[in-house]
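Hi R.,

As promised on Friday, here is the backbone we talked about, encoded as structure tokens. Could you run it through your design pipeline when you get a chance and send me back a sequence?
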């Protein structure tokens, strides 16, 4: 035997001194309930995130559709303008309007994303706070 007469089974026996040591009872129902609440909070946060992403995707689609309609209209307006100077002025006006719409749309989408993140984070933050309160109660019961 490479380890001599060493008995590995004795390593896992509880020493006699440990026999008198009292372990605190574990509240398995409380642990399971807390974990259930954690999973429910994560599921709710996920649901909010999915719904928000769908709303953002719908809004992006609406913006794209509107942008394509505006571009088509802009081409017709430029082509209808008479002289090259009038066409250039019309193009400048259209580009300025398009830029302003693009900035408004980006701002709107950024606000939607921020709102979505805030809502999902609030669910998780509330669960963490509740979990810490539950832990305090468990510790107070042990005293």
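Update: got your reply. Pasting your designed sequence below so it's all in one thread:
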């Amino acid at each position: 035997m490479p380890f001599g007469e060493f008995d590995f089974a004795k390593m896992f026996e509880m020493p006699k001194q440990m026999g008198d040591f009292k372990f605190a009872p574990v509240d398995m129902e409380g642990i399971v309930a807390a974990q259930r609440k954690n999973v429910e909070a994560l599921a709710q946060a996920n649901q909010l995130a999915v719904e928000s992403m769908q709303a953002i995707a719908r809004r992006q689609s609406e913006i794209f559709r509107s942008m394509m309609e505006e571009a088509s209209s802009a081409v017709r307006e430029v082509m209808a303008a008479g002289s090259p100077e009038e066409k250039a002025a019309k193009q400048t006006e259209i580009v300025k309007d398009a830029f302003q719409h693009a900035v408004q749309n980006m701002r709107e989408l950024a606000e939607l994303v921020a709102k979505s993140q805030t809502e999902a984070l609030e669910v998780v933050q509330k669960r963490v706070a509740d979990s810490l309160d539950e832990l305090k109660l468990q510790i107070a019961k042990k005293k």
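One thing I noticed while checking it: Residues 55-126 form one domain.

Thanks again,
M.
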